[in-house]
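To whoever is on call:

I kicked off a structure prediction for a single chain this morning and the downstream step that reads the tokens threw a length-mismatch warning. I double-checked the sequence; it's 693 residues and nothing unusual in it as far as I can see. Pasting both halves so you can look.
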Amino acid sequence: MTGDRPEDVESALRHWARLIARGQQAEAWALLPLLRPGVDAPPHAQLRFRALELQLRLSASLKAAHDLLPQLQQLGREADALAGAAAEDGSDPAARLRAEAECRLSESMGYRNTGLIPAALRCIARAESLLTELGDAGAVLSMQAHRLRVYYMAGMDRQLVELGESLLQQEALQLEDLLNVLSSTASGYYYLLESEDLPGYRERCIALNERALALAEAGDDVYAQCLSRLNLATNVALQGQVEAARNYLRTAAELLKRRGNVRLQSMRDQYPIAHRYVLAICDFHEGRHDDAFAALEQTAAGIGDRMLMRLRNNIVATQVKLAEQAGRLDVALAAAHRLRAYDQERAEAHIQQLVSDFSILSRQARIDAEHEALLRHGGALERALAQRNQELSTTLARLQSEIELRRATEAALQSTHDELERKAQVRAQSVHEARRLLARQEKLAALGNLGVGLAHELNTPIGNARLVASSLHDRAALLLQRIEVGGLRREHLLALVQESESGAALLLQSLQRLEQLAHKLQGEADEAQSPSVQAFDASAWAARVLQDQQMLAQQMEASLSLEAPASCPCTGDALAFSQVLCTLLDNALRHGLRDRPGGHVRLELLEQGQDLELVVADDGCGLDAAHRDRVFEPFFTTRFGQGGSGLGLHLAHQLARQRLSGELALQTNPGGGSRFVLRMPRQAVTEGVGHGG
């Protein structure tokens, strides 16, 4: 644009900014090489072009904000330098103010998309001040409309509604700004209804979305049309207008099929979630309550994006309200617990974000301080004083924004807490019914544990049998090879016979174990008449399990030892006892000694009065202090992706408590490694011990 008149350049940049704001990326990218200023262009023109270029890149991809944030922060520092140098140049101050305001807007977009809300509000406040000084009332209104999007990202719904209603009273709003105000204000009403039922809010939300839809259709804004139709589908579905909700979904799906609109890509990513959410509400109003509750739970569980946490919580809150409306207090109670966990997760994420904000802003303040020192060293005293005053005003605006955000967050958390407390008091009357349903679910979960436990028990004999078969197959192939080459000797045959004999013995033991398990499964057909309490010798069963694990010990280059009385008579669930012992030995060999050839595992049985104490200790790598409290949690493993499922010790812990009436614990091993102790009664009560089902 070298040589162009200033008014022509200003007009072209304004047109380019409108294209970016409307989401017309194709046209905006086409103008990029034409509008690039030359090297002799004024600094404010170059700075403004860079600001608009960064806005274009941000609007094309929200995820690009993290990569662009350093450039945006540098842009802000250069805007500060431009403001400080304005008095030394005789150029038009309006162009400089416009360039600095554009820089602040670009910087706020980057902070908003990366979650740095206080910094975004600070930049918006500075931009509004510059535009007010410039006397551009329309641009000030546009900046306030941009503030609404920051409020939405921060969850400041009440402030969003108040500012949005105030802006709707203005007649000077541009079409794109008006659409933004309508959709943002409607979203504020929608999320306010999540925490409390306010009369007229739903109707106001629908009216705002209908007005936005009419304006979007008149201006052929496909993105705004799709957004308004999805919002209307959700709201009318919650009112029970099933057919209208489905019609809005169909028309939104047809709009998403259009090509060439980059802004629709983000809408395409979120449409499946909104589609499942609205259809679940429709299913509820059509009487398919169970299908609706299942769909809502699956939809919420499938949302993992941090940007969609509010939508996930809103879906769970909807499930709570619908379940209460249908009288399904068990579903409502479970959903309320999930909602409370999600709210806590969101609050923790917000706290982490505030910590990150403080770190980034501190780093920014340090960079600004260094920049100020350079300016003071190379410039006049007036420039340094102006820079200091600007920093003080910026810090004040940032602190005010942080206080405003913190108050809004505390109010939202307190409101959620009060609402959950009220619902908990109401549901206290149905505790007996909820407990009965939970007891039934516990029985079903116990059946699942039994199946997994038996499968775990089958792994050892089956593995031993496969090992023997593989070894005999390899030896037979070697023998055949030696016969063919004529090198067969007597010692070869003797070695094969000896290995075959030991392998057959191990194979026979494995088959006997499988036969015992088969008899056990046959006896569980009538669990109520056939309890699992039986007399068994704990020493003999421990020796048998130890023998089964010898092959694995040889593979791990480890040794096993047993210290037990000659006879240890017990009454209880022998199969559960062997399952716990097998799991502990397998854990010690595969995990405790995996990186320590020559390790040792010691098994010890002790009679402690009426109790039996089983100790499994190894001298391996042991467990970190951070992992010791989680060792019995389901699916917890330090070898994820390397063969560890995280269920072995959890199932052993469950078997110890449910089927042996005992307790399994991890204790400190003075010699290093791990030490697991099972303590159980030697004489189990028949009525208190079952199959674990």
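Update from on-call: the warning came from a stale cache, not from the record. Cleared it. Sanity check on the structure: The first strand starts at residue 534 and ends at 537.
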